[in-house]
């Protein structure tokens, strides 16, 4: 994991944490004064988001630990575990509590209070969340390259950045819904609308949580590296004159910027065992020079027919 890459992720997460802490306090104050359930829901949302950012920072730190006897490939995938925990928290705490509070307020609406403080807090929150969202969007945009936004999220192996991006997007959508709920409650003189806004915010959080959990699950199970990287590895190995054929190249991400690769190659029959050892060492050096993200490389000499039989079986 590069220091620069980790630093960029930390900037995104720290910016989101600072914004959510400040916003959360303001929302709870506004909810206490006005009795707005939508504002209370938004306050809970900010608390959940703040806790999530703390967990992502904790996961980043834990993932940096070096390999040891118990975890010979390092701890990089621990970040994926905490990203999955974050998704569960968004659903269990953010979405469920928001929907429950909204239902309570719909069933037993409270008298309306002056909405002015709600509008002020929502405007400040929107400015802070928007700043955090822009930082996350810029960092993710610089990392995605030429890929489309949706495809980049699907292909990303760095959950910290896109988790914050989706959290901030949900937060901005929630602020808009909360503002609309407060306005509609007063305009139509029906406090139940404020509860309905809380339910809608909960539904938004549930959608985001399910999506993030799905992405984190894929990373936890293990996802292959970019097909371009796999093709580049195969090309370098196949170019060596002692290699008759590349049977397969199998990869798995052990961290956002670390890839384990296992290569099966058919060596020329004239190559001796001693020569094969030196050839493998040379190929590994060439692969590491071309692809620094390859943290572990295993090259197995294997007859093409044997590899095909094993694959079929």
Characterize the structure shown:
- With 313 residues, this protein is mainly alpha-helical.
- The chain folds into two domains: 3-221, Alpha-lytic protease prodomain-like; 227-312, 2-Layer Sandwich (Alpha-Beta Plaits).
- 72% of the residues lie in helices and 10% in strands.
- It is built from ten helices and three strands.
- The protein has helices at 3-34, 37-63, 78-107, 116-144, 149-155, 159-187, 192-221, 227-239, 273-290, 304-312, and strands at 243-255, 258-267, 294-301.
- The chain has a three-stranded mixed β-sheet, with helices on both faces.
- α2 (37-63) runs antiparallel to α6 (159-187).
- Mean pLDDT is 86; it is low at 1-5.
CATH architecture descriptor text of the largest domain: Up-down Bundle
Enumerate how many helices there are, as a single number: 10
Number of strands: 3
- Helix-residue proportion: over 70%
Net shape: elongated
Which regions have little confidence, pLDDT < 50, spanning 5+ residues?
A: 1-5
| N- to C-terminal distance | 36 Å
Instruction: Please write the CATH class name of the largest domain.
Output: Mainly Alpha
Tell me, rounded to a whole number, the average pLDDT: 86
Largest sheet, in brief, is:
3 strands, mixed
**Quick one: CATH superfamily of the largest domain?**
Cation efflux protein transmembrane domain
Strand line-up of the largest beta sheet: 1-2-3
What's the alpha carbon Rg, rounded to whole Å? Answer: 25 Å
CATH topology of the largest domain: Alpha-lytic protease prodomain-like
Query: From the helix content, strand content and strand pairing, which structural class follows?
Result: mainly alpha
| Structural domains: how many | 2
Strand content: 5-15%
The SSE string, one letter per element, is: HHHHHHHHEEHEH
